[in-house]
Structures are given as C-alpha cells and as structure tokens.
Amino acid sequence: xxxxxxxxxxxxxxxxxxxxxxxxxxxxxxxxxxxxxxxxxxxxxxxxxxxxxxxxxxxxxxxxxxxxxxxxxxxxxxxxxxxxxxxxxxxxxxxxxxxxxxxxxxxxxxxxxxxxxxxxxxxxxxxxxxxxxxxxxxxxxxxxxxxxxxxxxxxxxxxxxxxxxxxxxxxxxxxxxxxxxxxxxxxxx
Amino acid sequence: xxxxxxxxxxxxxxxxxxxxxxxxxxxxxxxxxxxxxxxxxxxxxxxxxxxxxxxxxxxxxxxxxxxxxxxxxxxxxxxxxxxxxxxxxxxxxxxxxxxxxxxxxxxxxxxxxxxxxxxxxxxxxxxxxxxxxxxxxxxxxxxxxxxxxxxxxxxxxxxxxxxxxxxxxxxxxxxxxxxxxxxxxxxxxxxxxxxxxxxxxxxxxxxxxxxxxxxxxxxxxxxxxx
Lengths: 189, 226
Description:
The structure holds two protein chains of two kinds. By secondary structure, chain A is mainly beta. Chain A has a domain at 54-171: PCu(A)C copper chaperone (Immunoglobulin-like, Sandwich). Chain A has one helix and ten strands, in the order H-E-E-E-E-E-E-E-E-E-E. Chain A has one helix at residues 24-43, and strands spanning 54-62, 70-78, 84-90, 97-105, 108-113, 117-119, 124-127, 132-136, 146-153, 158-166. In chain A, strands 1, 2, 3, 4, 5, 6, 7, 8, 9 and 10 form a ten-stranded mixed beta sheet that branches. The longest helix of chain A has 20 residues, at 24-43. Chain A is globular. The termini of chain A are far apart. Chain B is α+β, with helices and mostly antiparallel strands. Chain B has a single domain, classed as Glutaredoxin (3-Layer(aba) Sandwich). Chain B has helices at residues 24-33, 87-102, 123-133, 144-153, 200-211, 217-225; strands at 6-8, 11-13, 42-43, 55-58, 64-66, 74-80, 109-115, 137-141, 158-161, 170-174, 177-180, 186-190. An eight-stranded mixed beta sheet of chain B has the order 3-12-11-6-7-8-4-5, with helices on one face. In chain B, strand 9 and strand 10 form a beta hairpin. Chain B is globular. At the A-B interface, strand 4, strand 5 and strand 8 of A face strand 2, helix 1, helix 2, helix 3 and strand 10 of B. Strand 5 (108-113) of chain A pairs antiparallel with strand 10 of chain B.
C-alpha cells in the first residue's frame, strides 16, 4: 500500500490555503458549487430556514429589581408571504422566559400564558404594555444594558434579538424618580 | 376551567381560595355608566361607601398601620402584586406621572399599593418595589382576613391560585384605583391606569379638585370620629 502523500504544512499545522487533498478537477467543481450557494444566498436571503423573515423592532425590558419578573415588549415584523408562528423565547438574562397576555374582564386583570403568536404575512405583531408581553422570571440585567433574547418559531428557525433594559419608567424615561438611572433607595434587601 | 369560577353578566368573578367581594363585576359595570368626569374617572360620592378602614403591615416601617395614619392625606388605593410584570408597573408608572404633575401638592397624597399575593411579596421586596416608582407609594401587606376585609368594603377583586401540574400560579386583581379624600371618604374611582395612553393631566386635575375641596386637617380628624 503506497504511503499517503506528504503535504507541506504551515507552522499552525493547517494545510496551506491553496492545497487540499481534493483533486484539481473536483476542486474546481466544489468551487463552482460554493459560488452558486453563496450567490443564491445573496439573491434570495429569505428563502431558507437559516434566515427567517421576521425582524424584531423596539424590543425592551422593564427591569425593576432582581426579585420580581421583568416585562418584555417588542414589535415583530414579517416580510414574507407566509405567516410566522412564534412559539417561545429564551435568554440567559432571564432564567425562564414565557409569553403572556394581559386579559381584563369585568374590571379584573389576569395574565394568561400564551403558547404561540402568529405574525401575519407581510404584517406585524406587537407585544405592548397592557397586552401581549414576555415574562422574564429571574432577570439578571442592569438598566442601560442590552441583552439578547432568542425567539423560536414553529418552523424551527431561531431569531436572536437585542433587548434594551429600561427601568420602571420604560422607554418614555419620564418617571419622576430617576428610574431610568436606577434606584435612589438605600434600604438593604 | 370551571372550578370555582362563575359568570355574571359579561364579566367573570374569579376565585379559588380567597374570593373577591361578590358583586364586584356589577359594581364596576355601574361605575362605567355612572357620573364620569371628562377624564373618564367616576365620582363615587353618592355610592355610600364606607370610610377608608384597614389594618395592615406597612412595608416602609414593618409596623402595623391603619387608615387613621393616613388621615389628612388624599389616598389612592390599588390592589396589585410585585410578580406582575405588565399592568402593575404600568399602573404605578402612570401614578408616578400623576404625582409628578401634581408638583408640591403630591406631598399631600399617599398611594397604597396593597399586595394581593402576600405569600410571595415580602416587606423588603414591597418596599424596594414601590419606592422605585415614587416615594409617596406605600406598600401594604395584610393577613388573609385583613386583605379580604378591605377588598369587601370597596368591591375590589383578587384571587391567588397556586400552581398545579396543568396550570401555572395565577393571580388576579382589580384594575381600579380608588381615591379617598383627607377624611377617608371615597370620592373617585379611576377604572384603570394600566394604559399606554392615560389621561395624566385630567386625573391630576381631578385629584387637585379633591385636595382643595375644603376638607381641612381638623375636619379630617373629626371625620374619622364620626
């Protein structure tokens, strides 16, 4: 059995960029296929699962104190001709992160767990105060930070989104007690 | 579904362990059709509600407080809980905006944030939570009986349903905010401040009217004796 061909290696141990074990003819075919794949992804960026057609806008958390859940809000925009179904969310900054909506009936408020939310084709869906929201059970964050939330859709796609962390006053920033810059309380927990 | 839940007209009274006062729904439906100010808030002077009365533990001091301790102040009363990530902070944020709008008059106002979830809401958490919104907001924590008595008096609803294998821990609470004058008399019902478009100016104007409606400190003290 003949010895395997000895190929020159770089100091890092990798093969030189211009060399490979693939014969020259086959190498050419691989290059063409790679170029085609790259080209199609540039032309049709939303054709596959790897690049879902949902963008996340105006995403933020209302962070209060570590002991109480933070509410999360966002606008989901679907640019495709197919509905997109949001089925869950996760974040290292939250522990458990769940979807909810506030239901008001007869002057009584309650939070209802939500299993899925459909973003219509070429449409938007808003998670807004007093309505749909996310509950970040164990917030590990600080005001002014941006934390990442990964949204999961029914088709298996995952969309990471940056969420800005606000204080009790939210993005309006008009609370009288400096919530946007943190608490003025000095009482220990 | 089902369990202890019952329907009344278009609204539902929810209760499993502790029940909100009967008639809360019909009461609030009346509120929506009663004499409303331009702000949408409802004048409840003619409803013959009892004067503000309660005994609970104040989160600020850890001591028992009663309605008597708030005589001479205009009092807002709201039922909520700290594990409520949506409507409670939205309501308290709007309350804080109203207080800001009142300027120096805010000193004459106290906001009672009564937890309906005392098992989870410790006094230190309540204290930190309320003061983040405004220093005039006071956290109150009562026993089951103390909470039920206050709810019953003003037809405020709440319930706590512990988690089961098929249902998460659930808390419900009234949206409404009551306003009591310096003598402890119920004057106004704000149906809800859990809105992204609240009438801050209108509600602040309503409160200023009550603040300056001629019941002084001495009368407030006498009022409590009657």
